[in-house]
Amino acid sequence: MNKPNFRKAKIEAYKTLITQDKFSFPINPKSIKIQGQKIKVTSLQEYSQKTGITIEQLTSNGIFSDGYTISKNNINIILYNEDIETEGRKMWTIAHELGHIVLGHTTQCEKNETEANFFAAQLLAPQCVLKHLIKNGAKLTVSYICDKFKLSKEASTNCIHALSKVMDSDSKATEYDDIIINLFEPYISMDYSFNAYFDELEDRRKSF
Fold this sequence. Notes:
The protein is mainly alpha-helical. The protein has helices at 6-18, 44-51, 55-58, 87-102, 110-124, 127-135, 142-149, 153-164, 177-207, and strands at residues 39-43, 67-72, 75-80. A hairpin with a 2-residue loop joins strand 2 and strand 3 (75-80). Helix 5 packs across helix 8 (153-164).
């Protein structure tokens, strides 16, 4: 009962991507729209400045994590720390908070945090897309995901970890896999075609 529902998190992330009016790559969580939800994304610092609520009041005496979500007047306000050192980590933080909203989390616990992290991974670098890249000869590394998907090293590591997770039926394909791959295909197809080309050149070199 208390185990994270990885399959649900994956499916909800895929459905979120599919229902966007406009798809662009790399994924920018700030522009993600959630059906039936009013969401505003802003930094803690900007929110403090606009509302007059001090950072100390918004956090634990000025000490805060990367971000969190508050609900006000039927609007979910995702707050992130503008001082986060990389843009990729900011994007992960926002995607993580979107996960909490989409998955209907109302409490903070290890299960919900794990599900939100997995949602973020599937939203920003979907498991089925990474598997598709590997199948077509791409070599996935932390550096590759950082560069291609514009994520931080930590977030890229999380995506690779999510890819390698063995979660019984949760690791099986979903009904949305082909749709997601088709969405990403125009942006990733050159990667494995170039890899295949250079692999062929290397094979020829070794044969001499």
